[in-house]
Amino acid sequence: MKFELRHLRYVLAAAEQRSFRRAARGLSVEPSTVSRRIRDLEDNIGAALFIRGHGGVTLTIAGERFIRRARKALNQLTHATLEVGIIGRGQEGVVRIGLMSSMASGFITQLLDAYGADHARVRIEYAEGDATDHVPAIQQHRLDVAFLTGMPSVEGCDFAHLWNERVYVAMSEKHDLAAKQEIGWNDLRDCEFVVSEAQSGAEIHDYLVKHLAGLGHSPNIQRHAVYRDTLMQIVATGQSLTLTSEATTATQFPGAVYRPLAGQVLPFCAVWSPRNDNPAFRRLLSLAKVISKRCEASIVTTCLLGPLESGMNGS
User: Is-contact 244 170, C-beta < 8 A?
Assistant: First the structure.
């Protein structure tokens, strides 16, 4: 059978109005269009659906049976269209996110709070790991987006720089350097370090080697097969140090303190596949870019107003 969805609407309207003319008026079409299309449908299915008369139309027995099933079919199609439309607008679905740093505070938390306010029916799934875990998952569409440090150039992927965080040194509150308000690279020349073999340990190791080698020093770095909580306990109870990003300093550990590393800033970016057509993810990415611009504007405003206010206070 060949007929269009609108033909079902003509039949249903005619059955409700008991008139082709009134049905046509409600559908904003010509009465002849309704009559002709219903006749085509009847010819197609091989049965009369209506008895025509001067006062209007009435359903035949075949028409009554047809209407019952047609109404259910049309309702199902309407609900299907609405549900798919909700998903298409990014109001339902799943977004799979790869993370490297703690979500205790910072840009990620701000982003997900804002996103959740308007997309409460979208489920967020998280995966922890580093770039070696997340990049293949992005390329294979097992993740929608990954938030990574640095400015990576990944084949087949797009990326956007979203925010920066200062680098901090984590140490025991009893460590000699804990008395300093800010740490310099020269302060770290003869220190021992610990890193995790899992969460960002390789990145921290390479970061330390790169900067301390420039001072003619090969750092003593111990690797431990532990996650961050255990690593911070090792730091808090010993003389070893580690590096961490600004957002992670919101999580406090007994006996451990954080001190900023002078002049050191880590860029963070989002990485995703340009072939990813997940509407819920696309809305998250758009929001991330908006929040990033707001943060940049806020930083610029603070930098401009700072000297101005100082001058006014001085005068």
Answer: yes
Nearest CA-CA partner of 11 in 260, 268, 3: 3
Cβ atoms of residues 34 and 23 within 8 Å? yes
Q: Would you state the structure tokens that stand for residue 12, as one six-digit string?
A: 């249903």
Q: What is the pLDDT of residues 262-272, one digit of tens each?
A: 999 988 999 99
> Per-residue pLDDT averaged across 183-190, rounded?
92
What is the pLDDT, as a whole number, of residue 22?
92
Cα–chain center distance at 138 = 13
Fold of 96-304: D-Maltodextrin-Binding Protein; domain 2 (3.40.190)
The pTM of the full predicted model, rounded to 2 decimals, is 0.63
| Rounded percentage of the chain residues whose pLDDT exceeds 70 | 87
CATH architecture of the region 5-88: Orthogonal Bundle (1.10)
Size (the chain), residues: 315
Q: Which two tokens stand for residue 239?
A: 């003389």
Task: Report strand pairing: 56-59 vs 50-53.
Answer: antiparallel
